[in-house]
Amino acid sequence: MNLVITGGSVMTPDGPEPADIAVAGGRIAAVAPPGALPPADAGAEVCDASGLWLLPGAVDAHTHFGMPLKGGIRSLGWRKSSEAALLGGTTTVIDFANPDRGESLTAAVDRWKTAATGRCLCDYALHCTVSEAVPDRLTEIPALVAAGIPTFKGFLAYKGRLMLTPDEMRALMHAVRQASGMLLVHAEDGEMNAQAEQVLVNTGRTTANWHPAAHPPESEVSAVKRTLELARETRCPVTIVHMSLAESLAALREARTAATAAVYGEVCLHHLAADDSLYRMDQDRALAAVCSPPLRGTADTAALLAGLIAGDLDWLATDHCEFPLELKRTAAHGGFTKVPNGCGGVGERLTLLHDLAVASGAMTPWRWQETCCQKPAEIMGLTGRKGRLQPGYDADIVGFDPRREFRWRPLGASDGDGNLYRGRRVRGQVVRVWKGGRTAVADGRVVTGEPGSFLPRRLDGK
Ligand SMILES: [Zn+2]
């Protein structure tokens, strides 16, 4: 035993329960009622977590820390993004490796791993995007599954870049299913979006305020329905990522009652905690909110939150892809179609969901930790290592003070101007984070420079 955390409470289905946690060799050794642990070894660090809730290190199943775009445009990158993650209680992320045109999936995965190595302070796993559903790429899938990358992503959106036709999507689903993997789908109709965008451009409506008009709700709903039909036809396990509309959720709910294969629904923080009023504010606010699918109205955000509470949506992710606002401002000279899509959120997820739903009593603390920690870990193949405070699991532990109230400030090196949540009064704060049994965050600062490791995953839970 080299660390004992006393005085805190762990989450249970019946509510927070006082418990002490013992850590040895970077793993959880025991979780026991107060005072019931065997005496700590001489030299063990004893940490007082009185008044804190203790959660498993949060798992964000959808990030883009490693995202380079064309023309030298980059997101904040591995180091800064992972610092924000740790400060917000997220110790594990699953990032998307995106092959260039003509590049093999394996080469893209290697490129992503090389970029993350030594820079990412969280442990990380990878999904792999497939934007060319050609035989050369599809035949690579089984080897990637065997190498611990069992989840792939296909786009029905982004015509001319990443979009797959329905036939290509079907072929990809067949290949992923045969390899016992899972497909994640960005469900917006690229043709419908391209048409809407063309009309806006032709009529000179090119400021960022018009961005959501290029992503009409019917585009998402029709792509969600098509995805669900293809999943049923191919029996491929599917996750629809970043669902943003009540109507999409209704289609998912219906499909789940009839499903022959697993279908999961993901919601991202900005689709719960922010809404489309940002596009009607000043240009900076509108630019910060340029992401796809766009922010939606409050009837949708409310329906999605209710769906997450009820279990119709499986986990909360962020789609974290933060660009400095200055970069978006420069790109916007060419119109909103040139602005890189994405916003931050990896540091905000735990606190903001607590503030939105747990502090008000709408969501139990147990469901909160399920949606941010346990479910993404289990469904994405990290059972046994991440997502629970149980003996044998990695000692990634978050100390959270549910009573603390403060005004939100962007974390770490995050770009203050581009933050969607700055200045908001929030309830609940991450005050301490341990990763692998060592202190990673204390007093609001990252105190580790120790890089995270690559996590191979298996969807069969072994
Ligand atoms: Zn994404």
- What is the fold-level CATH name, i.e. the topology of the domain at 57-74 and 91-102 and 122-379? TIM Barrel
Strand element count: 17
Model regions low in confidence, pLDDT < 50 over at least 5 residues:
none
Q: What characteristic shape results from the CA principal axes?
A: globular
Give the mean pLDDT.
94
Strand content: 15-25%
- The CATH architecture category of the domain at 57-74 and 91-102 and 122-379 equals Alpha-Beta Barrel
The number of helical segments is 14
Structure description:
This protein has a domain at 57-74 and 91-102 and 122-379: TIM Barrel, CATH 3.20.20. It has 14 helices and 17 strands. The chain has helices spanning 78-87, 105-116, 135-138, 141-146, 166-178, 190-202, 217-234, 246-258, 269-273, 283-288, 298-310, 325-331, 349-358, 365-379, and strands at 3-12, 15-24, 27-32, 45-48, 53-56, 58-63, 90-97, 123-129, 151-155, 182-186, 238-240, 263-268, 315-317, 397-407, 425-435, 438-442, 445-446. The longest helix has 18 residues, at 217-234. It starts with a strand and ends in a 16-residue tail after the last strand. Bound molecules: zinc ion.
